[in-house]
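Appendix C reproduces, verbatim, an entry submitted by the partner laboratory led by Prof. M.T., so that reviewers can inspect both the input and the predicted structure.
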Amino acid sequence: MRDTAPMLGYNSTSYGTGFADVYDDWYGDVTDVAATVSRMVGLVGLVDPAGPVLELGAGTGRLAIPLAQAGLGVTAIDSSQEMLDRLHALDADGSVTVLHGDMVKDLPDGPFAAALIAYNTIFNLLDNGAQQACFSAVAARLAPDGVFVVEAFVPELDTLAGSDVSVRSMAVDRVVLSVSQTTPSSQQAEGQFIEITEAGGVRLRPWSVRWATPEQLDAMATAAGLVLDARHADMAGTPFDSESTQHVSVYRRLTG
């Protein structure tokens, strides 16, 4: 099958616009929040116990708010105002410093003891150059010995090009279909969740990713002056091996 053109009209704000109202219901427990907080507190403590910490693509604050509640100084950035509106509503105490902007071009100066880009968010940057630029931008804002924590899926190298239609969920008054297109030659996948309800008609929720292997991410880190400090299969510290489907990679800023 030949490669297809990227989804027309999709941009950096499309995901937030499409998913802000359902993100916490659909993905609130997609990863272990408590393990993430514990891991980040431990890593930050090796640099500066109070942080500060930068979360890229923080969305509704699923992680940023618990991190702040754990005593870290957290700055959260996201390109979606809809997502950040949800964060503001959930963060009644204003414990998180919130920035609306691009997670490459608009990062605050720092320095930060740690930066976090969780649950495949690095893949929302849709080309290799943008992902490399993100590594470089973060590295420039880390304190000496500061860390960049990247959580992402491990791509299947034998993924076939093609399309897929499946049912994500179904109830008496609604159905959510998943439609996707995968292009391994460009390491890209994109799709729509199509929500059909009895009362509300049809709602489209688009997504698009450009994946990278752990080795490719390591190369980006090296080019940015970072070194791989640790890699596990999850935030709880499960050993990473050839069967792991996810990875949590900790890159440390060189001090020399």
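The mean pLDDT is 93. Additional entries are available on request from the coordinating office.
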